[in-house]
Amino acid sequence: MTEKIINLLKSNAATSKQLQLATGYSQAVVSRKLRKLGDKVITLDQQRPPQYLLSGDAFGVGNKVPISLTNHDGELCLVGFLRPIKPKGFYYESNDKTSKVLLGGNKGLFTDLPYYLDDLRPQGFLGRQIAKKMSRISEEFPTKSSYWNSNQIGRFIIANNDDLTGNIALGEQPLLRLKKKPKTTKRSEYATIANEIMQGEIFGSSAGGEQPKFTAFNHELQSHVIVKFSPKGESEIAHRWRDVLLSEHHANQALNSISVEAAQTHVFEQGGRLFLESIRFDRKSMFGKCPMISLQAIDSEFVGSGENWLKTGQKLVQLKLMQVQYLSTIKLLSAFGSLINNTDMHLGNLSLTFNNKEFKPLPIYDMCSMGFAPKASEVHAFSFTPSPIKSLELEDNEEVKIKRAIGCFWKGLANDKRLSKEFRKFIKAHP
Ligand SMILES: Nc1ncnc2c1ncn2[C@@H]1O[C@H](COP(=O)(O)OP(=O)(O)OP(=O)(O)O)[C@@H](O)[C@H]1O
Ligand SMILES: [Mg+2]
Question: Which residues surround ligand 2, an ion (CB under 5 A)?
């Protein structure tokens, strides 16, 4: 009988010695019974002496849930298993014990879903629509994804692997699924898609962010893209959102011109809206994927500061989870953002890629003059006084680069025919 051992492990992890003391069994009997329990028991063998935990079922798929990473060719590679722990938590049983990133800050133990899976919970504008649709499919899903528990998030991730940000897959389903070509979309169809989205249709993946958007596989580029769009028409609000989207495009151009990687974007007007199309850097051609985790999720696991890009980055360097050279990139991005009135540099607006050992910043996205955006449906007159560049504590060479990028940004924006008269006037008056 293994019942005594199960009952003991139900509430706490235990070593063999502790199990022997509590049950009165010999070491050999405890070992035999633990072996007999098979996958019902998790062995933490990197601890000395090894500890044993009781595993339970999760997401309706058992107690050993595969975790895989999709590579650039679209092939999935099994890297480990997610083991639900009783009474609470998860253990990442890695095939590769050196994986510092996926093991998290506590040797594979997590009090809830691992941070990189929680990051895949539907978020923002599209997330709200997905949660509503999921609640229609199954009433077990709350209509708001912020209310989803780890079981609901896990079930959603398993069933919707193709659409998720980054390259992490959960469960056996994605490993067995046959590759299906994504539906291709032409630019000429964007206006129709945007109209459908605004009427509540879901289009593409669960990418986060509050602004209206959709994802698609673009026919002309043969690339996966994420497309944000302005409100339709000529209202003051619509014009202001166009200005903000244009500022994002010119910010990307300016940053790329000083070799600070930013998303590759294209802007165009169609059907009374302005579209900002951004090539997805977490995808490679049709099937390939690349790792991507938000700094917010990484911060919550390893740092817990929740403050700003640079502070979290500095902590990651101290923890040997990121190379020091990337701090300069993050510093340049923060400085650039503060000089173009980006009031929205939260930890969800920077993402990192990873290998086994460490993280590295991905190209920047959502870098725009958000401070000029309508607030609670009100449009305010353009007003912005940037901090003096000296207050940003840049090295001399960084200051030179930033001045170049800022010059390029305002010039590019002022010369863009699609910009509103008011914004152009403001830029001209503030050289
Ligand atoms: N080029 C890209 N490649 C891959 N992922 C991207 C790209 N651009 C954006 N994303 C992902 O999509 C999410 C939403 O995009 P973005 O931040 O631009 O939207 P938003 O609605 O402006 O966000 P916010 O709520 O911060 O204002 C991002 O958090 C990021 O995860
Ligand atoms: Mg964003």
Answer: 209, 349, 366
